[in-house]
Design a protein that fits this description.
This protein is α/β, with parallel strands linked by helices and about 260 residues long. It is built from 11 helices and 9 strands. It has a single domain, classed as Metal-dependent hydrolases (TIM Barrel), CATH 3.20.20.140. The strands form 2 sheets. A 7-stranded parallel sheet has the order 1-2-3-4-7-8-9. Strands 5-6 form a two-stranded antiparallel ribbon. It starts with a strand and ends with a helix.
Length: about 260
């Protein structure tokens, strides 16, 4: 069993902290742990966030607090852990905050990084972050029609899949996190994304994060989306989106039951 999306974000890049995740993974029956962090943690990706910082001063403050390390710190930790005798498989990656206009930069930097996988995720709409409690409601959800937000999100996600930069797509339908009605039928969108994922050989996450972090009633993917992905034979990986060791494989028992919806 895999947990394909586990963050080191809230702790140091140290062996001791990694083993806290490994210990929990073993307790939960995880055999493959994919460790990563957001690109916004690493100084080398700073220019990717210029538009987000310029869009609103609160976003700049948020971003500056996230900047903690050089990517070399992660690579050094990866090398150190790989020297250990581990009781399970550990892979190392990055969660990339995708924006279409940043593709040239990403093409210049990602191929040179000796990591095992790259996750592409959409975290902003027109350079405004949509899931930050302190300000996203004002910057995004009160300013735009919900249907426009959904359409912009899924358009960007389609471009993310088609970019061929990523092995895995993070929390593909997380824009649903506030349980707002998109105002239109999402089934054609799910069909389009499934077709793209199949054509571009990416796997899609069945990510429990919105369920236990935002109290969304759906466990992982929307059942209709999951069903369509399976119909297209798109690989699906289970992911907790853990930001703390205790959250590894979070809600996996519930996710197991959701597979039959």
């Amino acid at each position: 069993m895999i947990d394909a999306h586990v963050h080191l974000e809230n702790g140091p890049l140290s062996k001791e902290y990694v083993f806290e995740f490994i210990d929990t993974a073993l307790e939960k029956g995880i055999e493959h742990l994919q460790l990563l962090d957001h690109t916004h943690r690493f100084y080398e990706f700073r220019e990717m966030y210029d538009d987000i910082c310029q869009a609103d001063p609160r976003q700049k403050i948020w971003f500056e607090k996230k900047q903690k390390n050089s990517i070399q710190d992660l690579l050094k930790l990866k090398d150190e852990i790989e020297q250990e005798q581990l009781p399970l498989k550990v892979s190392w990656g990055l969660e990339v905050c995708y924006e279409k206009e940043r593709e040239p930069f990403l093409r210049s930097i990602l191929p040179g990084l000796p990591l095992d996988f790259f996750v592409g995720s959409v975290h902003s709409i027109d350079h405004f972050l949509y899931d930050i409690g302190a300000f996203s409601e004002e910057l995004v959800w009160e300013k735009m029609d919900t249907s426009i937000i959904y359409k912009k999100y899924y358009q960007e996600l389609a471009q993310c899949i088609a970019s061929d930069l990523f092995d895995q797509i993070g929390h593909p339908d997380v824009i649903k996190l506030y349980q707002l009605d998109p105002g239109y039928d999402l089934h054609p969108t799910y069909e389009k994304l499934a077709q793209l994922a199949k054509e571009h050989h990416v796997c899609m996450e069945d990510n429990t994060g919105a369920y236990y972090r935002y109290n969304h009633p759906e466990i992982g993917l929307c059942p209709a989306f999951r069903k369509i992905l399976k119909q297209y034979h798109v690989p699906i990986v289970w992911a907790s989106d853990a930001h703390y060791p205790a959250h590894v494989a979070m809600a996996y028992d519930e996710l197991k039951g959701a597979q039959f919806l």
